[in-house]
Amino acid sequence: MEIFIKITTFLLFSFIVIFPILILKRLKKNILLNYTLISLLILAILIIIFTWWNNQSDLILLNYFGYNINGMNHNEIYENVASMNLEKVKHLETSIMGIGWPLKAVLGFVTFIPYLIFVYIGKMVLNRMKNKSIA
Fold it and tell me: How much is the pTM?
């Protein structure tokens, strides 16, 4: 179960990193405007899915390890958790506390905007280097 969740999380993160590059390669006209609009829209959707999945996967793992989220005290909460999984469960329990996944999505979106700018500038620099080597 843990391996499946880690693979899915890695794939979602890979899509977030790769899609701006693929979008920039496919565009022919009005590159800056189209790139900005399309990449921001797709990035927003992917980050929402990614942050929601991180939250859900933690809940799935807690359930898988036997964590009772409706327990009234520590004895009820950790009653079905094996002693070898207790550290993992406590770490997962801590990770689901605090800010929710919607706020994490907003912060992630704001964090990835410089990446979009970096990809665009990198593409323009590569195009100029390519044009200078041809000429």
Answer: 0.86
